[in-house]
Design goal:
Length: 88
């Protein structure tokens, strides 16, 4: 699980740069073990000051399917990524 979380964290901002404020920005993370399939997803958002609308600026998804090699594996990963974006 640690390797999956590290892989997902690779491209997503989790803290402000030195000297910068995190105001108007946020990040979220989820990880789980679903029947031996390890999943981690992270997303970064910013809030537009004028409209209050949240915008996803980055996301990352990592999944270790274990020994499973089925045709549904790709669909499961794509569905999880779609859900990541929908809830970010």
């Amino acid at each position: 699980m640690i390797r999956v979380v590290e892989a997902a964290a690779g491209n997503v901002w989790m803290a402000p740069e030195p000297g910068q404020s995190a105001r108007g920005r946020g990040a979220g993370m989820v990880c789980l073990d679903y029947l031996g399939i390890y999943v981690a997803a992270m997303a970064q958002i910013r809030v537009e000051k004028t409209s209050g609308r949240s915008v996803s600026t980055a996301s990352s998804h990592a999944q270790d399917m274990g020994p499973v090699q089925s045709a549904g594996s790709r669909m499961q990963i794509e569905g999880a990524i779609t859900m990541d974006w929908a809830t970010a």
